């Protein structure tokens, strides 16, 4: 049976600033199989890697990504607000919100990438084409999977390029999950920990295609490793990699 892959959620957001090159590098050094991160589009059409549609929670800036240019966003620190983390060092203050291009350039080709399109709160005209084109230009299409809670965004990606891998993000149980995968030609479903652990029996035939998020407790990591799910997405990849190595 194939070994469960370990994806670092927003890098390794349990211990390092989320969605920063610093966090991604830490996760890569720890030995992750893949990185999960989120994208939005700036006022001047650049794709940036950040979770929220606004700057406030993860940077020392203010405002919506859609209302700011990349140059404006780059003025702000994406590390300083994490000063309460035990590993914090003053150099974190120099971290900036990375562009998708920077993340791709920074990531070794063997690392899988799960790019989540945050397209359900703000409308970003043309974000799907832009993301696809950046990934293609960087020759990374083979080991990228696109996910979103917003199904139309995924279907748009598939329309532009039928070969792309897509995964629908869900945090609740759905009936007949395989029918969705088949109908929409999905590579995977990305389901929440709770929705998987509460429905193991009915998901059994699909577990090796399902990525599970966000798997953080020791017990949940171990249970999902035992179930041989396709991947787990965790804030603590180092811990998950250790548990996997013990098997
Ligand atoms: O991709 C799984 C997970 O990242 C979805 O939730 O809010 O952490 O982006 P969120
Ligand atoms: Ca995400």
TrEMBL record:
It comes from the Bacteria. SUPFAM superfamilies: PLC-like phosphodiesterases (SSF51695). Coiled coil: none annotated. GO terms for biological process: lipid metabolic process. It holds the Pfam family GDPD. GO terms for molecular function: phosphoric diester hydrolase activity. PANTHER family: GLYCEROPHOSPHODIESTER PHOSPHODIESTERASE, GLYCEROPHOSPHORYL DIESTER PHOSPHODIESTERASE. It comes from Oceanobacillus bengalensis. This is Glycerophosphodiester phosphodiesterase. Residues 4-244 form the GP-PDE domain. Gene3D superfamilies: Phosphatidylinositol (PI) phosphodiesterase (3.20.20.190).
């Amino acid at each position: 049976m194939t070994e469960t892959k370990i994806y670092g959620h927003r890098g390794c957001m349990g211990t390092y600033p989320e969605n920063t090159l610093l966090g991604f590098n830490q996760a890569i050094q720890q030995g992750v199989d893949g990185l999960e991160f989120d994208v939005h589009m700036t006022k001047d059409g650049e794709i940036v890697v950040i979770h929220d549609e606004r700057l406030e929670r993860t940077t020392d800036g203010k405002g919506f990504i859609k209302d700011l240019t990349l140059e404006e966003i780059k003025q702000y620190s994406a590390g300083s607000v994490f000063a309460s983390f035990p590993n914090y060092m003053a150099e974190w203050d120099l971290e900036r919100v990375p562009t998708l291009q920077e993340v791709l350039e920074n990531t070794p080709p063997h690392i899988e990438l799960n790019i989540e399109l945050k397209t359900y709160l703000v409308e970003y005209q043309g974000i799907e084409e832009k993301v696809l084109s950046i990934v293609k230009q960087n020759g990374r299409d083979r080991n990228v999977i696109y996910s979103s809670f917003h199904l139309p965004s995924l279907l748009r990606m598939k329309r532009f390029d039928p070969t792309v891998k897509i995964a629908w993000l869900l945090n609740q149980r759905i009936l007949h999950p395989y029918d969705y995968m088949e109908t929409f030609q999905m590579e995977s479903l990305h389901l929440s920990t709770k929705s998987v652990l509460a429905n193991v029996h009915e998901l059994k035939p699909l577990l090796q295609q399902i990525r599970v998020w966000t798997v953080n407790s020791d017990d949940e990591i171990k249970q999902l490793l035992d179930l041989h799910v396709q991947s787990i997405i965790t804030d603590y990849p180092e811990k998950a990699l250790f548990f996997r190595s013990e098997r």
